[in-house]
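Supplementary Methods S3. Complex input for the coenzyme A-bound model.
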Amino acid sequence: MSDVNVRALGEADWQDYRSVRLAALRESPEAFVGSLEEEEAFDERIWRARMVRSQRLVAVRQGQAVGVVSIGEGQAASSEVAELFGLWVAPDYRGTGVATLLVKEAAARAREGGRRHLVYWVGTENGRAVAFASGMGFLPTDYRRPMGVVSADDGDEEIAMVLPLHEEPGPWPRL
Ligand SMILES: CC(C)(COP(=O)(O)OP(=O)(O)OC[C@H]1O[C@@H](n2cnc3c(N)ncnc32)[C@H](O)[C@@H]1OP(=O)(O)O)[C@@H](O)C(=O)NCCC(=O)NCCS
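Predicted complex, serialized as structure tokens:
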């Protein structure tokens, strides 16, 4: 979408992040570990800390946020691995390339920051997100973990998918 831009947010933009993050939790509660009720109660100090902890990217169209993604350290043992998380696109903008724009920008930033792999944990039942990630070049791994979402059924899992950020990215990450 040529009229959509990806904007990297800084700490001062915490209210912009809060707004799109709460919209994501409201619209897709089953996709995220955080809950709307819990995060609505966060104060400014917590939102600012979140901005510092991870890089937040928003997709903006005509001044309105239509998607969001975060890049952070994740649980990988290596500083050569970054984690992609919190990916959400507003329903009207799904299937339009907004998610692709966000993830391409996230991958470019991770690569520029010296990372060799980008890890994305995604619910194994979230067919659309898995299909999207596969289309972007993320590869399935043997790593699984419990879903962690309150609304998830017992036994629901996430799979780690990995995007190599270089032609020869080196050893597969250990998670
Ligand atoms: C996950 C998300 C960001 C992907 O963005 P999107 O714009 O929907 O993705 P795209 O349409 O570009 O790609 C989805 C792919 O899945 C396919 N697909 C569509 N509906 C599908 C479905 N119900 N099941 C499986 N695959 C589906 C599409 O054909 C497309 O494949 P293609 O690129 O080969 O055509 C978006 O759907 C979203 O915000 N979902 C809700 C929040 C969420 O689940 N976030 C992920 C948390 S880990």
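The chain has one domain: 4-164. The mean pLDDT is 94.
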